[in-house]
Amino acid sequence: QVTLFKRIVQAKHSFPSGGVVNDISQDMIQRLIVRRQTNRLGCLARAENDVRDHKFFSGINYDSLMAKKIVAPWVPSLSDPLDASHFDSYEHIEMETEPIRNPLTPKQQAVFEGF
Q1: If we measure between CA atoms, which residue out of 8, 100, 17, 23 comes closest to residue 54?
Q2: Closest CA to 53 of 19, 27, 21
Q3: How far apart are CA 1 and CA 94, in angstroms?
Q4: What is the C-alpha separation between 5 and 94, in angstroms, rounded?
């Protein structure tokens, strides 16, 4: 999980060309993936209100949403409550081990003898 987290934090991103992701969506995504948590949308003084007020959500009636009156545009079929088949698998990344960058010298290793 540490390797996966590092890749997420260090990753550079770009959007596909040709207008696949519109400007409002790009703005929302860019504001959510800001590395510094203190500058990230949803983590500022207005918290979740900043997210709700973004143009991406301009068509949402929050009163209807909170009253569960909005029909979901897609409901996945699940085999059980823990079914994660609709999510990408990152197991191959989670299983990776990081190479030892600077192995200890014999003198340094001797300090740890007996542990």
Answers
A1: 23
A2: 27
A3: 5
A4: 9
Q: pLDDT per residue over 41-79, tens digit each?
A: 999 899 999 999 999 999 999 999 999 999 999 999 999
Counts of helices then strands in the chain (DSSP H, E): 6, 0
Quote the CA–CA distance of 48 and 62 in Å, as a whole number: 13
* Burial category of 76 from C-beta neighbours within 10 Å (exposed 0-12, middle 13-18, buried 19 and up): exposed
CB-neighbour burial class of residue 40 (10 A; exposed 0-12, middle 13-18, buried 19+): middle
Residue 37 token pair: 């948590």
Determine what percent of the chain falls in helix, strand and coil, rounding each to the nearest 5.
40, 0, 60
